[in-house]
Amino acid sequence: MADPILQVSGLSLRYQTRHGEVKAVEDVSFKLLPGQVMGLVGESGSGKTSVAISLMRLLPDNARVTGGQVLLDGRDLLSMGFEEVRSYRWHRISMIFQAAMNSLDPVYRVGDQILEAIETHNPELTKREAQERIAGLFQLVGLDPQLTQRYPHEYSGGMRQRAVIAMSLACQPDVVIADEPTTALDVIVQDRILRRLKEIQSDLNMSMVYITHDIAVVAEVTDRIGVMYAGKLVELGDTSDVFGSPIHPYTSALLSVFPSIRGPKRELVTLPGEPPNLIDPPAGCRFHPRCPYAIDACQTEDPPTVERGSHWAACWNPLPVQTGPQETSGPVSLEEQ
Amino acid sequence: MTVSSGLPDIPSAAGSPTPLVRVESLTKLFPMSRGLFRRPSAHIHAVDDVSFELFEGESFGLVGESGCGKTTIGKLLVKLMEPTGGRILFQDDRDTAGGQTLTDIVDTSGKDLKEFRRKAQMIFQDPYESMNPRRTIFDTIAEPLSVQGIGSPPERMDKVRDLLELVGLTPASTMLFRYPHELSGGQRQRVAIARALVVEPTFVVADEPTSMLDVSFSTSIMHLMSGLARQLGVTYLYITHDLAVARYMCQRIAVMYLGKIVELAETEELLSNPLHPYTRALLSAVPSPDPAHQRDPVNILGDVSAPVNPHPRCRFHDRCPMAAPQCYVESHPPMEDHGGGHLVACYRV
Ligand SMILES: Nc1ncnc2c1ncn2[C@@H]1O[C@H](COP(=O)(O)OP(=O)(O)OP(=O)(O)O)[C@@H](O)[C@H]1O
Ligand SMILES: Nc1ncnc2c1ncn2[C@@H]1O[C@H](COP(=O)(O)OP(=O)(O)OP(=O)(O)O)[C@@H](O)[C@H]1O
Ligand SMILES: [Mg+2]
Ligand SMILES: [Mg+2]
Fold first, then answer.
1. Same domain (yes/no): A161, A178
2. Considering CB atoms only, which of A101, A213, A216 is closest to B287?
3. Are residues A144 and A291 in the same domain?
4. Is A206 in the same domain as A65?
5. Is B12's pLDDT higher than 50?
6. Is B212's Cβ below 8 Å from some Cβ in A?
């Protein structure tokens, strides 16, 4: 097996707020092989973006990494000097931000902003070559290259998001972290961009961490899936295995209930109980207050790792192995418990 | 947030069709930035001669290609922008004597405008853009209340807490005095929803309100919004790219392409019997949540085209797999009823 391009081990991150310390990421570990796409899923507020910005080392002032390593090609990004991190960012590892507006400066033309990134990291290119690369990237994301001359406020929401996708690819990085990159796109444009991304990714052997809440997109684009709940990675494995036979009750709930346009209209269920308070997270397994399978141990002790082939989860009372095709309406009805 | 139930079946809007809003030939052109293109007369036809009605208490879905004009329609309807042409008529509820009068919001001003600003709210597509980074979550949500002079400070606090709990930002006490940048993307989106609902509007433009939320949260938000529709008769213009969400939330759906509505029908009818070739392509592009499933390729030609000074012919002609010579020469096709209010603008159906 190839050496991983990215290896995250024991990553923990906290934010200071006036209400207390938010324990947003706790002991997260995973690795990414060259050319691999890993999906990162989990409910809103579970720490996905926090993991992503740690990998970029673009942390806000009130954030503190309390442990762990992020090895990119064997070098720890978290202990690198500031200048060195800067030379890695965009060039070796880039990010498509969840908030497109956060990465676009409203007072500069969109094309000039991308040009600047290319000029910094690929000084060997002439201005003309750089502009051609940008025009190519715009075409790739379905934007008219003339739009490079316009300002962000003249773009629609989805056009901005596509400009940011183009920007993340401008310096041909080894790893792209895509944080909900297609939330503002219609499915035709999304489909087209996901296909093109796949092509580029295999041409350049680029790896991706793909954060999304869209289970259908995860199923279509990822090789591996990591599931986060309340700051912890609770399950990780090959996409087909995780979908086929989830180990953790939370994963099963997450993957099994989704609205669909095909077939009869099914009832949608919400996860019962309150979302966890990350300032004072539950002891033991953080999911136990909402878990229909919780046993005594779950309330007090950290769950052990259950391994099944390519695939593991942290759970005291794992789901049985599923054989045969899974009923999509959901093996676990959290509602009935 | 603790209720774990599905959405109730949506009653058919055809039952009591009182129009709350009537949009007639709405048009919005944006001049292209100066000095970049030779012709100063170049315009982006963001919304181009669009007409429809919204019934009281209905959720009307607006879907379509990125950049086709959905947000622009939303902003026009809540008067955050002035149209280039056309009329936006709102039902005037001061007339209680049975008959209704419709008022063009373009002419609204003074006290009426202030009341309109309370009744008509917009949940913005980009929750990052629409929030002041220096205001706490409490101030962000309570601001429309203070602008409108509604409630005493303790009443406002109670109201904000209740709404935070309703949108799943719990415990509310750990959220109130944070700043927007101290929340996750989906949490911020829920603050935007709370802010729009706090003044008890009767009309809400919801622009991709749950695009960053997982199914569980987005289901409870849809539940909250359709509950308000039933209890208080709130009407929604629901903009989304997620057709599955539109299926659960909306009674009718309009499909837009480059500034035009090209198809409009009741939700199940549109999903099971799409007639316009763009709608068909759109439905076939919806990904499947099964890793083993292979979809057919999407039947649409070419790249996205830009709505700059478009030719008067069918906006979709150059991407249409069914285009005939007629589509290249005649003007953009009119909306025609193909039975039961299923409207389509296409020469080829
Ligand atoms: N700068 C910050 N200061 C304080 N708390 C923060 C900050 N950024 C995020 N948080 C909190 O940390 C937790 C994790 O946030 P994060 O943005 O990583 O979630 P997420 O999984 O990306 O969610 P979403 O899907 O909603 O974007 C949340 O509870 C959030 O409120
Ligand atoms: N202020 C503006 N100045 C110039 N052009 C604009 C402005 N706002 C929007 N446009 C243009 O108008 C068209 C419609 O934009 P709009 O934001 O309404 O699209 P949308 O349907 O909401 O797209 P999306 O799904 O990507 O959000 C786009 O071509 C956009 O570039
Ligand atoms: Mg996030
Ligand atoms: Mg929009």
1. no
2. A216
3. no
4. yes
5. no
6. yes
Q: Are residues A163 and A16 in the same domain?
A: no
- B235 inside domain: yes
Residue B343 maps to a domain: no
The answer to whether A261 contacts B286, with C-beta atoms less than 8 Å apart, is yes
Q: Which of B33, B63, B72 to mutate to test the pocket of ligand 2 (most atoms within 8 A of CB)?
A: B72
Residues A87 and A121 in one domain: no
Residues A79 and A205 in one domain: yes
Contact A247, A312 (CB under 8 A): yes
Q: What is the pTM of this model?
A: 0.93
State the average pLDDT over residues A99-104: 80
Which phi and psi angles does A123 have, rounded to 5°? -60, -15
Distance B124 CA to ligand 2 centre (A): 13
Q: Confirm or reject contact between B320 and chain A (CB < 8 A).
A: no
- Closest chain A residue by Cα to residue B304: A142
User: Ligand 3 center to residue A98 CA distance, Å?
Assistant: 6
Confidence of residue B122 (pLDDT cuts 50, 70, 90): very high
Q: What is the extent of the structural domain holding B139?
A: 17-250
Number of domains in chain A: 2
We report the CATH number of the domain holding residue B178 as: 3.40.50.300
Structural domain contains residue B60: yes
A to B CB pairs, distance under 8 Å: 227
What pLDDT digit, counting tens, does each position of A149-181 carry?
A: 999 999 999 999 999 999 999 999 999 999 999
Compute, in angstroms, the gap from residue B337 CA to the centroid of ligand 4.
28
CATH number at residue A29: 3.40.50.300
Given a contact cutoff of 8 angstroms between Cβ atoms, the answer to whether A55 and A32 are in contact is no
Length of chain A: 337
Tell me whether residue A194 is in a domain.
Answer: no
Same domain, A66 and A177: yes
CA proximity to A215, closest of A270, A252, A178: A252
Query: Chain B partners of A215 at a C-beta cutoff of 8 Å?
Result: 215, 289
The domain tally of chain B equals: 1
Q: For ligand 1, pick from A15, A16, A96, A179 the residue to mutate: most ligand atoms within 8 Å of CB.
A: A15
Residue B291 lies in a domain: no
**Tokens 């912890």 appear where?**
A232
pLDDT in tens, A295-315: 999 999 999 999 999 999 999
Read off the amino acid at residue A304: P
Choose between B100 and B47: higher pLDDT: B47
Using 50, 70 and 90 to split pLDDT, how confident is the model at B155? Answer: very high
Residues A166 and A182 in one domain: no
> How many angstroms separate the CA of residue A18 from the nearest CA in chain B?
7
The ipTM is 0.93
Confidence check: pLDDT of A56 > 60: yes
Split at pLDDT 50, 70, 90, the class of B171 is very high
Q: Specify the residue with its C-alpha closest to ligand 1, atom 27.
A: B185
- When CB atoms are compared, the residue of A144, A190, A259 closest to B248 is A259
Rg of chain A in Å (alpha carbons): 21
